[in-house]
Design a protein that fits this description.
The complex is a heterodimer of chains A (107) and B (120). Chain A is mostly beta strands. Chain A is built from no helices and eleven strands. In chain A, strands 2, 4, 5, 6, 9, 10 and 11 form a seven-stranded mixed sheet that branches. In chain A, strands 1-3-8-7 form a four-stranded antiparallel sheet, with no helix packed on it. Chain B is an all-beta fold and 120 residues long. Chain B is built from no helices and ten strands. In chain B, the strands form two sheets. Chain B has a six-stranded mixed sheet with strand order 2-10-9-4-5-6, with no helix packed on it. A four-stranded antiparallel sheet of chain B has the order 1-3-8-7, with no helix packed on it. In chain B, strand 5 and strand 6 form a beta hairpin. The radius of gyration of chain B is 13 Å and the shape is globular. Classes of the chains: A mainly beta (107), B mainly beta (120). At the A-B interface, strand 4, strand 5 and strand 10 of A face strand 5 of B.
Chain lengths: 107, 120
């Protein structure tokens, strides 16, 4: 199985900050990586797919990058609505696997 | 609007069975693969399994933690997805989400989830 390791597990930041979340895969996953946002009590929604493609309707302050086994999600200027949990997912091989999540908190 | 809606969750005793349903609308259901993903209380996301479309013979994939106990099926005539859960364990307690997917594809959209509680 491919292990997805996210860091940090918790991130405290302020409105306007630039933040980066990292996801490392235990083996190469080509470009088959997605990022999801989840707010408390709600279902996840996709932000980024294929490493860097922005889902329709997602603000351009969200961006994704990386290749091979190391990937990042960057929020260029945090907005109040961005405080949530974030998960990466590889869909290159079965079983599909998620990172353990990053909780983004208000500092 | 593309939408999926889960139902069928509830309280079940360890060793029991439960069948979840997922109703799809707003897209050609038969063209897509469909996934189940779960989330235990206060925990992260865990992929449960996937069913491919008719063109790919409705074949399935499962996580090791549920293989042999859970079964995914679909009825394209009803735009519906199912998750049959047998031999349930307390560690199967979670919110279960269905989501549209595809070959080498991410999950989008997700339903609102249905809570399954396994407890005596």
């Amino acid at each position: 199985d491919i292990q997805m390791t996210q860091s940090p597990s918790t991130l405290s930041a302020s409105v306007g900050d630039r933040v980066t979340i990292t996801c490392r895969a235990s083996q190469t996953i080509s470009s088959r990586l997605a990022w999801y946002q989840q707010k408390p009590g709600k279902a996840p929604t996709v932000l980024i797919y294929e490493v860097s493609s922005l889902q329709s309707g997602v603000p351009s302050r969200f961006s994704g990058s990386g290749s091979g086994t190391e990937f990042t999600l960057t929020i260029s200027s945090l907005q109040p609505d961005d405080f949530a949990s974030y998960y990466c997912q590889q869909y290159n091989s079965y079983p599909l696997t998620f990172g353990q999540g990053t909780r983004l908190e208000i500092k | 609007e593309v939408q999926v809606v889960e139902s069928g969750g509830g309280l079940v005793q360890p060793g029991g069975s439960l069948r979840l349903s997922c109703a799809a609308s707003g897209f050609t259901f038969s063209d897509y693969y469909m996934d189940w993903v779960r989330q235990a209380p206060g925990k992260g996301l865990e992929w449960v399994g996937r069913i491919r479309n008719k063109a790919n013979s409705y074949t399935t994939e499962y996580a090791a933690s549920v293989k042999g106990r859970f079964s995914i099926s679909r009825d394209d005539s009803k735009n519906s997805l199912y998750l049959q859960m047998n031999s349930l364990k307390t560690e199967d307690t979670a919110v279960y989400y269905c989501a549209r997917s595809g070959s080498y594809s991410w999950c989008d959209p997700w339903g609102q989830g249905t809570l399954v509680t396994v407890s005596s």
